[in-house]
Amino acid sequence: MRVVSLVPSLTEAVAVSAPGVLVGATNWCSHPADLDVTRVGGTKNPAIERIIALAPDLVIANEEENREPDLAALRTAGVEVLVTEVRDVPQAFGELTRVLAACGVPVRPRWLDEAERAWASPPQPERRTTAVVPIWRRPWMVLGRDTFAGDVLARLGVDHRYATHAERYPRIPLDALSAQGPDLVVLPDEPYRFTADDGPEAFPGLPCALVSGRHLTWYGPSLAEAPRVLSEALRAAHR
Predict the structure, then answer these.
(1) Separation of alpha carbons 191 and 135, rounded Å
(2) What DSSP character marks residue 220?
(3) 208 phi and psi, to 5 degrees?
């Protein structure tokens, strides 16, 4: 079996569950740290000819992270493409099961069982809080409706202010974000790399939680520790 992954979290899931199956991955596929495969460009601009040259049995993709014209080009070239859709935690587990089966993983991996147990009863705060969750600046963009990361936060007791917005990742002016009056601001380190020196200064007077983007937005082995890691970061913002 020869697989090319165009989704970083799925790359990690396949790599640790079926060593040797992956032959290609994007430049953004950073886990596992020792991943040694052909790099095929970005998630939004993959090198189609390079992928085809790898002669994959399967390319795994995601409807949000990858562009349909690229996937159509692969199909036209005779490459089988599996496209996932992940908008919440239960759907993530279902799609992971489907992807691993398609990649020939014979036995359900232990990390997937551990992740499902972790999310069956995630840590809960003393009270629910509200938040705005920027994912980019210049311009400012935030989590909107129907997102995996939004569902992750909701399951940890955090309701983000734009969960009912018409767009999934709306552009919102900075003054409008602060005017929402959230209990805190959640700043992940991807896709924009917010840091202690780049992000919190835009929200004076508001607690800011700097969180791991891999634990907030990836659906793969990181799901097993995500409830604990994210909960700790959210609690730290209120100290």
Answers:
(1) 6
(2) S
(3) -125, 130
